[in-house]
Amino acid sequence: MKKTIIFIMIIILSACSKPVEQSMTAIKVSEIDGDRLWERISEEADYETYSFWPDHEGIQPGQSPHGTYHRIFINKILAEDLPSKDLILPEGSIIVKENLDSEKSLDAITVMVKVKDYNPDAGDWFWAKYTPEGEVLAEGTPGGCIGCHEGMDENDYIIVRPLDLETGLNPNS
Q: What fold characterizes domain 2-155?
């Protein structure tokens, strides 16, 4: 009887725990496009199993063009590189931002993925924007994405926080 209860408890705890992100190889420049990236973040390794950006967990206030609120997920490759002393994220890094409206409903999904030799002039980032259902709205090197992020080229085009920051959001702390 005792073994049965323990077995049932293990099953219940397993069912309640968050799935763990699977380790994946980086997408190559020869295979990257919006549909392939969507397949990676929705089927091969569901982005909701990724970690939140450190010190930026859950729903956070956002700004245009990413919505009134957002949630930022990062894959294991990126998470394991933080803090990044050289301020350049590794090939295969993926950032998924859920763009939420004022009601905190999902409006769009924007993604950055680091693809070796994709676009060296913009940090080798491939950019994509999707509907909540995965329809590609923009992909590749959209001028609006790069235009906004290029001001942070010394931080590998990342705006949310300095890549070499150990803890907290304030670089002066």
A: Chalcone isomerase (3.50.70)
